[in-house]
Predict the 3D structure of the following.
Amino acid sequence: LNDNLKIIEELESSVRSYVRSFPTVFTKAVGHKMWDMDGKEYIDFFAGAGALNYGHNDPKMKKKLVEYIMDDGITHSLDMATKAKTEFLKKFNDVILKPRDMEYKVMFPGPTGTNTVESALKLARKVTGRTDIISFTNGFHGMTIGSLSVTGNSAKRKGAGIPLQNVVTMPFDNFVNEDLDTLEYLERFLEDGGSGVELPAAMILETVQGEGGINAARYEWLKRVEKICNKYGILLIIDDVQAGVGRTGTFFSFEPAGINPDIICLSKSIGGFGSPLALTLCKPELDIWNPGEHNGTFRGNNHAFVTATESLTYWEDKSFENSILKKSEMITQFLEGLVKKYPELEGKVKGRGFMQGIETPVEGLAAKIAAVAFEKGLIMETSGVDDQVFKLFPPLTIDEEGLEKGFNIIEDSIKTIIK
Ligand code: PMP
């Protein structure tokens, strides 16, 4: 056995087999590249499932963080004000909220994605005094009880071992078929009192479902969802944990839809450098919690604030957004080309921006493509309840050459499997 496999074997016996899909031991990463113990280089089309939108070890963020540490900057401060925190809040306001005319209060709900979702559900219930939440098929919102209860994946829900209650799951855009107007059904359901279900506190959804198969909601559909929420006093929660921070082309994924969610969940890449940070944004009038009604030891990590502040520099002008859009177009064209060239895939291109993939009904094929691609030096995951989609998820900062290299590996892998 080589050293890599020996370490994995030891890990598997004592930890849990979480290294299965990428069977090696990684040691180093820069930008869109990673290296393992044997010095083998990989192109990263996974980007920490959206936690590394700016790539690995961004030089400017790294410098800021090293300087901060060398200056004995505050590491942990709980709820005390720190320079790192106030600078982040100011820049978030100046670069992200103000230019978009967005008036929101920023909360630190805890370190991770599931914490922001929990805080959103909890706040919505407190504000409305209602209990139920509407979630959508194939949605993914996290692994703790509240966020799991709104996650539309039975295999994941089983992990709780108990029924997860007070949630009604409705069909996501186009889930059933394109001719069925599921929102008309939803309105009817609400109008009728939902077969005994009281009016819900909130609806929660991702604009592009990252784990559930890269299903992108149409902007028209999102607008109608917002309209229904407004009509019935239901709070609209957009979970932008995965689709946000530029992943779909704009800082917030819902910007092109022109909607104004009541609550927005952010995490993953908001810290910029891969360190845990989460934000919950709520409309100012929803901020009804007394101090201490939602707290946590590790909410608001100062090191993450330092890198997060630096990461927002990317958003100071339009050039970053333009570069994402240009490269997204390359991804779409590549995927559409693949579908045409390889009818054996029976493929369908899905998603938006840097969140695209190909769905194939051929059992096990998407996972096989990802596995062969890994051997050839590309890190790529699958998505969807049946792992039926292979998912291209590179850092937004990847250059065109890196993208092309990744594309070539994917095409080579498909050729290896099909021919
Ligand atoms: N919401 C969405 C949309 C996610 O994709 C994820 C993580 N994949 C979460 C919430 C949960 O985030 P975390 O794993 O950081 O708890």
Observations:
- The pocket of 4'-deoxy-4'-aminopyridoxal-5'-phosphate is lined by residues 49, 112-114, 117, 140-142, 206, 210-211, 239, 241-242, 267 (CB under 6 Å).
- The mean pLDDT is 94.
- The chain has two domains: 62-315, 319-363+370-390+403-419.
